Amino acid sequence: MRCGSAVVPLLVLVLATPVLAGPRGNKPRFDLRATPRIAFSPVSVLVVAELNGGDELEEFYCPGLEWDWGDGARSTHEADCDPFEPGTAVERRFSARHVFRSAGEYDVKVTLRRAERSLAVATVRVSVHGLSASFE
After folding, report:
1. Cα-Cα-Cα-Cα dihedral of 27, 52, 111, 87, to 10°?
2. pLDDT 10s digit of each residue in the chain, 136 long?
3. Is 60 helix (H, G, I), strand (E, B) or coil?
4. Where are the domains of the chain?
């Protein structure tokens, strides 16, 4: 009995993965700092939120900001920007001032939003002390 050689065609199946919305890129880190972080009341505190590193992603272009000051006060900022185009720079630094009039520990929270979606949240603690010195 003679074994013949048979040529078996090789069928290669390529599965295509759909591209949904282009590359996601590296998201920036959202940092928050307050100056001063420890003070006596009343005190005006400057809070700076910053996007560090990452790519210039469209989802971070022209965000709204929500500031929760931790003392019951809130403030918002809605940006009015031109439409995003490739190569457009993303704003990376945001700041606001708030006066704390009472002693306490306040967790200041900033939320970066776009289209009612939270993109990033950062928190910093501010310690405000009351005046306790008595003068005779």
Report:
1. -60
2. 454 544 444 333 333 323 333 346 799 999 999 999 999 999 999 999 999 999 888 999 999 999 999 999 999 998 888 998 888 889 999 999 999 999 999 999 999 998 889 999 999 999 999 975 544 4
3. helix
4. 29-129
What does the alpha-carbon distance between residue 108 and residue 44 come to, in Å, rounded to a whole number? Answer: 13
Closest to 107 in 3D by CA, of 66, 69, 136: 69
- Output the six-digit token pair for 71: 């003392």
The dotted CATH code for 29-129 is 2.60.40.10
**Cα 52 from chain centre:** 9
23 DSSP β-pair partners: none
Neighbouring C-beta atoms of residue 122, cutoff 10 Å: 17
pTM recorded for the entire structure: 0.75
